[in-house]
Structures are given as structure tokens and as C-alpha cells.
Amino acid sequence: MAITTINQENFDDQVTRSSAPVLLDFWAAWCGPCSMLSPVVEELAEEHPEISFGKVNVDEAPELAQRYQISAIPTLLLFRDGEPVDVSVGVKSKAELEAFLK
């Protein structure tokens, strides 16, 4: 499944109104660890079509980073029924992220 770019304009439609769980990857182009995590998130998106995946560039959508108090990147935020239910900060292995999604 494709990963959607999330910004202030599409956040409600893609995240808070989503009937599926949503995993948001908060990242920035200048962030080395974000580049390391990105391929793992892409693999998970392909393997978990039941979950919607989105990426939030903190430089382009600072209001979303501020709303969810993102103080370090990469940060993964898992939403269920439009509400954040879990957070993962830093680079994690695929196995760790598989467990995080459950």
C-alpha cells in the first residue's frame, strides 16, 4: 500500500476520520536516522494493507509536530479511531515495529 504525505490540509480526512488504524512517520529530509527508518516503514506498508501509512515532514507541517508534541525524529505515532494510542521514537528494527503495530 502506498504511503500518503500528510499535512494540515488532509490530516482530518486521512487520520482522524480513518476507520483503519493509521501509522504516521514524523520525519525531516535532513534527519539521518529518518532515512534509515524509511525503508522499514515502506516494507511494513506493503505487508500491512489493513493499516494506513502516512509521512509528516516536520519542516513542512510544524503545526502537526507541535500538536502531537513531537520533540525528536523519527517518531512513529499510531492512531486508532482517530486518536493517538502509541508512540515510538528513534530507529527501530522491523521486528520491533511489527510488535509496535499489534
TrEMBL record:
Gene3D superfamilies: Glutaredoxin
Active site, UniProt feature: C31, C34
Keywords: Disulfide bond, Electron transport, Redox-active center, Transport
GO annotations of cellular component type: cytoplasm
Source organism, top-level taxon: Bacteria
Disulfide bonds listed in the record: C31-C34
Thioredoxin domain sequence ranges: 1-102
Site (Contributes to redox potential value) location in chain: G32, P33
Coiled coil: none
Site positions for Deprotonates C-terminal active site Cys: D25
GO MF, one example: protein-disulfide reductase activity
InterPro entries: Thioredoxin, Thioredoxin-like_sf, Thioredoxin_CS, Thioredoxin_domain
Family named by the database record: Belongs to the thioredoxin family.
Protein's UniProt name: Thioredoxin
Organism annotation: Evtepia gabavorous
Gene designation per UniProt: trxA
